Amino acid sequence: MNTIKKLILSNFKRFKYLELDFDDGMNILIGDNESGKSSVLLAIDLVLSGSKGKVETIGIETIFNREVVASFLAGDKSLATLPTMFVEVYLSEQHNPDLNGKNNSKSIIHDGLRFESVLHDDFSKDAVEILKDPSCNFPFEYYESKFVSFAGQVFSGFRRPMKHVIVDSSQINSDYATREYTKSLYDANSTPNERSKSEYLYRTNKEKFRIDTLAEINQKLDSYQFGVRSSSKSNLATDIIVLEKEMPIESKGKGRQCFIKTDFALHKAQSLNAILLEEPENHLSHTNMKKLLERIADSNGKQLFIATHSSLICTRLDLRKAILMNSSGEKPASLKELPKDTARFFIKAPDNNVLEFVLSNKVILVEGDAEFILMDAFYRKESEGSSPEKDGVHVIAVGGTSFKRYLDLAKMLSIKTAVVCDNDGNYQNNCIAPYTEHESERIGIFSDKNSARRTFEICLYKDNKAACDELFQPSRVKLSVEEYMLKNKTDAAFELLDKKAASLVTPEYIKEAIAWIRK
């Protein structure tokens, strides 16, 4: 199986430098906006395509790192300091001497491909003159794109060592993206001989149409006649489309198009080596997303690269395959060492907030909806008017049985995490003993130590008796106010937030959690 083992980027998009190691099967790129997920897929796509035309279509100025360009223009602007950009793909052993060599940034013998954008040798003198001008712009026009293997051999789209396709759900209405996708799938499902024969017959039949069908019309004309386009921009590869039950998929809804394109690539193109999926969750209902995940999970013999914002995708496809991209520029993190039982928990657990959690720096985990509803009011009260948003703190309700699973993630990723939990009548057994293996400076467990104050609602009532009695006592017939709050946790919390938020007293253990997370 031909796979990508490693990717190295230099001055590409937002990355001055990035090095990623990949799994031979599935790789899930997760991160917030502008974290570089799409840039990684684009880099892989450009190298594997070997297409200068694709680079020109995108524009070299759009993929060159802007910070590096700005730094150059602010410096002495000499030819010696003119930056270059490259992308390297390190492949599994291909048994192909044309791919094996040391033409890479690590100077190691390996199979691989390299795309670079460097100053064209023939234009160096012109570039020197341009750079002398104090008001000059960056000389992108004098750069050239090169596609070479680690053996130093030039390669192009006609000699691709790895076949791939990119399915970008965000570009579902783009004619260019659709043509590129269809062409890739057509190439993957046909041999060179089959393509040559089909293209010849297609061109021949177009010419036959001109001679036979248009002849009657053209006989009426003099100097000007009708013909059929036969240029490289109008051939079989550009005109062919994908059908489902005799209907062009472009005529279907966006969600169905996304599903068909992904499923077709996964299961109907056996010669593909790699599939790049850009936000496959786009345009899909929850039900169809689950169906697509089943199809992805059942895929064999292809290396997958999936960029996503979806917690469902991250967890159902195994968190151990995830690579976390951070928009702050920190090195991406891998979850491959996550305990197997924790990964299996998230695969089988109900929908969860794992993506929000792993992309956070500080988190307060609470046990239920009532705590979640009131935590913002408590936080503002105890932080002198600040808020979780201002302090970069995420409040997430996960359920008490899930705490340890999230703490496995917190420990691995060094996420500062405060667990706010009930003592359920025994502080030592329920709040200390279960979390000994997770103890660290970045993890804190906060609960009331008094066994009589076993739940959040009891603590809330004891600390706010007058306010709770005023709100809930008048309508009570059988239940006490405390019993009512225990049986109607969410409703009671909403009413307290709506009518008594400003006067509520924060339980002491929640005060401690807020103070700790803000340090």
What does it look like?
With about 525 residues, the protein is an alpha/beta fold. Among the domains are: about 5-160, Rossmann fold (3-Layer(aba) Sandwich), CATH 3.40.50; about 360-515, no CATH class. The chain is about 40% helix and about 20% strand. It contains 22 helices and 18 strands. The chain has helices at about 35-50, 50-60, 60-65, 65-75, 125-130, 175-190, 190-210, 215-220, 235-240, 255-265, 285-295, 310-315, 340-350, 355-360, 370-380, 405-415, 425-430, 455-465, 465-470, 480-485, 490-500, 510-515; strands at about 5-10, 15-20, 25-30, 85-90, 100, 110-120, 145-150, 165-170, 245, 245-250, 275-280, 305-310, 320-325, 335, 360-365, 395, 415-420, 445. Strands 1, 2, 4, 5, 6 and 7 form a 6-stranded antiparallel sheet that branches. It has a 6-stranded mixed sheet with strand order 8-11-12-3-13-14, sandwiched between helices. α19 packs across α21 (about 490-500). The longest helix has 21 residues, at about 190-210. The radius of gyration is 30 Å and the shape is elongated.
Task: Describe the structure in brief.
Helices cover 40% and strands 18% of the residues. The chain is an alpha/beta fold and 519 residues long.
